[in-house]
Amino acid sequence: MLKVLAPVGTGNGFALSPDGKEVFVVGLVRTAIEIRQISAASGAITEVARGAYPAVSPDSGDLAYATGAQFTELAIRNLRTGSTRVINLALLLGKGATLLNLGTVTWLGDGQVLAVPGFEAVGSGSSGARPRSPGTRRAPAAGGLRAVVVTVTPRRLTARRIAVPRRWSRYATVISGDASGPGSFLIARTGVNSPEPVDLITLHGSGVTARQVATLPRGALPVAFAPDGDRVLYLVGHAPPALWVGTIKDGKLTATHRLFTDGRQFGLDAAAW
């Protein structure tokens, strides 16, 4: 079944609440980057906050997103009360880093949020916060992705830096928390032609372990992982690409089938579970 909601831009983030009731999109309002909430039932639009890369908690109760003048802060907003808490991650993200430009904000399955900075914007000065075109970005430095884990409790927000394995230090990536287990997330690389691995990363204090759980087909472009980490959406082909889904099981990608190919009414820009 296809249902068309309000035509609102989705740059710098797109999320669906796990209960399927709300969609969160990001668009420019004059010169500000703003998150909007759309009711899946009525299509009603509500302005939420200045920010980007919204992510909804597994219980659909809280919204995490990047915010601040330089987009180095993480906000946690209670979707029932509207109360919001903010933590500044600038020192942990690194000098000149920002959560814009293909950064990541995602919930893990145990009350933690993972924040990964995006590509550095060349020539953007110290802030690096202004979105840039694909031709004006460079990958993070070698040595693994810089990432920050924020622990969310009723009393406070605390953050620590983690090191993701070196092989993930290049190219854009799709990262999504795995709600089926504590402190874990899935990661896959985009923009390459060879078969690419899907890794399950599990936190252990300031360190991590990585285990390959599947391999994407040659030429596949990963788009989103299911909340429980058992399926992946990916694109194959060009003009227009076809949207496929596959099941991650026993170290393989199985039960793959095509979901959407009709690009006559609209193009596919983003997808979310």
How would you explain this protein's 3D organization?
The chain has 1 helix and 22 strands. With 273 residues, the chain is mostly beta strands. A hairpin with a 2-residue loop joins strand 21 (242-249) and strand 22. It is globular, with a radius of gyration of 18 Å.
Brief synopsis:
This protein is an all-beta fold.
Element-level helix/strand string: EEEEEEEEHEEEEEEEEEEEEEE
Calculate the terminal CA-CA distance, rounded to whole Å: 15 Å
| Sheet with most strands | 4 strands, antiparallel
Instruction: State the low-pLDDT regions, or none.
Output: 121-142
Shape: globular
Strand order of the largest sheet: 1-2-3-4
User: Number of helical runs?
Assistant: 1
Give a topology summary.
Elements: E1 14-16, E2 22-29, E3 32-39, E4 45-50, E5 52-56, E6 62-67, E7 73-78, E8 84-88, H1 90-93, E9 104-107, E10 112-116, E11 120-121, E12 137-138, E13 146-152, E14 157-163, E15 173-177, E16 184-189, E17 197-204, E18 207-215, E19 221-225, E20 231-236, E21 242-249, E22 252-260
Antiparallel strand pairs: 1-2, 2-3, 3-4, 5-6, 6-7, 7-8, 9-10, 10-13, 11-12, 13-14, 15-16, 16-17, 17-18, 19-20, 20-21, 21-22
Which properties best describe this structure?
273 residues; mainly beta; 4-stranded antiparallel β-sheet
